[in-house]
Amino acid sequence: RSHLCSTRNHFGALSIEYLTSWKRGAEMASLQPVSVFKQAAGEEKAETARLSSFVGAVAIGDLVKSTLGPKGMDKILLLSSTHGGEPSMEVTNDGATILKAIGVDNPAAKVLVDISKVQDDVVGDGTTSVVVLAAELLREAELLVASKVHPQTVISGWRKAVDCARKALTDAAIDNGSDPEKFKQDLMNIASTTLGSKILHQYKEYFSTLAVDAVLKLKGSTNLEAIQIIKKLGGNLNDSYLEEGFLLEKKIGVNQPKRLENARVLIANTAMDADKIKIFGSKVRVDSTAKVAEIELAEKEKMKDKVDMILKHDITCFINRQLIYNYPEQLFADAGVMAIEHADFEGIERLALVLGGEIVSTFGNPEKVKLGRCKLIEEVMIGEDKLIRFSGVALGAACSIVLRGATQQILEEAERSMHDALCVLSQTVKETRTVFGGGCSEMLMANAVQNLAAQTPGKEAIAIEAFAKALRQLPTAIADNAGYDSSELIANLRAAHSKGNATAGLDMEQGAIGNMQELGITESFIVKQQVLLSAAEAAEMILRVDDIIKAAPRKRVPDHGH
């Protein structure tokens, strides 16, 4: 009996030990994460995902922050060649250009790159400001989330702050659209402010006049296709000028008239080479060279028929997108018609718009074709190059801005600067309200938001206050980039606005607080509003994220032929 009891006790102890070890194993298994994703997929959760988003967005903001303002610095972009050649180089301080050129892997950083592109497409300027403001909002949000304020509470506060800031900006806007003289001065000031932070800063008065004259020719249209920018190496930036009419960077054919008055222009996109047999895989066998000559003669006759059909349109100038070979060129010269070949697609699209004609490919119905008209076509020299000038065109708004400069990099940056100014001015002609620059509008909005925070109960007040702090970071960055004491300047600016001085802003020439109205530092209302709304929306979208899921790449299945 004692032996049986000891055996039973032994088995009892074993079963308890087994159950304990099984329970411990089950607990350990439950602690280990169970992956439901494929091997190449991944996930970042909660705080890790949010931190990843904040870090990426703030890094992008810090990258372009030093380019902000009239004393901002430039960046050199080295762009690798796709064909294995030497890398090209760009020197720029345009936020959209910098962000387009760099490859970003962080999802939040990509959102900021996208809002910069949209800002560039919609209004043309403020591409750096929108990224810096969004990054500063996320920097503030990071501190709030770390202080256990829920992201949805922050977003709710921000939305109230955006409404308040937008109302303050709208109330401060000035509209001189009904007074042509004052409005033209507003446009000059806007162009001068826009170009003040670009490479054209030294000649901003001269280029502002060029840009305003070009935009006023559009008579309220926002179609910038009618304004052509041509870059020519040589000379200085102040040798640039505005040319009436349209310039085409092509040459007139041999033995053809170099000057035409009251021209009738046919714009075409058709093959003008010797019409060889176009059936793929076909072969022609001949038993003598005389037969080859017959084939060549047939090709010539075919081409002559085509040229005759074109000449039936009663034209004095023929412009083709494709090449014009020697034989048809000779036929046009014999008929006294000016022929211009290889005007690229953008060139003929713009020509059709400017001359009021249509692009044609078939010539069987001359009565249905709309010809382009122009008072004078002539060949002109710009620098070392010959160009064709179309004067007195059907679209009176058409003009060309000829930029001169010492290097290709200077010309490209000057073109980007002029494009920004033209975009802003064309939008301002449509939406005539203006606001003051130099940090004046940002401080005005920040003070209005700060007052709202003081009247708001609960945690939302902290988020609203953080929004005001982020807005004040824009004038802070402008002062920092100019090498001044930003803490003192921003404190003085804030005090000036609190005392009711609504035109106070940063005078970066003197390093002091100045009157923006007297200094003529004016910006377009639509640009400032777009910066505020785009930055707030992008920051809100990033702040909502609590999980980043990386999808597994699709495996490429080899294509086995049947």
Percent helix range? 40-55%
How would you state the average pLDDT, rounded?
82
- The structure class reads alpha+beta
- The number of E-state strands comes to 19
Q: Tell me the number of helical segments per DSSP (H or I, 4 or more residues long).
A: 17
The low-pLDDT segments are: none
Estimate the global geometry from the Cα principal axes.
Answer: globular
Query: What distance separates the N and C termini?
Result: 81 Å
Task: Report the major sheet.
Answer: 7 strands, mixed
Rg, Å, rounded: 34 Å
- Report the sheet-strand fraction: 15-25%
Feature tags:
single chain; 562 residues; alpha+beta; 7-stranded mixed β-sheet; 3-stranded antiparallel β-sheet; 19 strands; 51% helix; 17% strand; globular
Explain what this protein looks like in three dimensions:
The chain contains 17 helices and 19 strands. It is α+β, with helices and mostly antiparallel strands. The strands form 6 sheets. Strands 7, 8, 9, 10, 11, 12 and 13 form a 7-stranded mixed beta sheet that branches. Strands 4-15-18 form a 3-stranded antiparallel beta sheet. A hairpin with a 2-residue loop joins strand 12 (372-382) and strand 13 (385-393). The protein is globular and about 95 Å long. The model has no long low-confidence stretch (mean pLDDT 82).
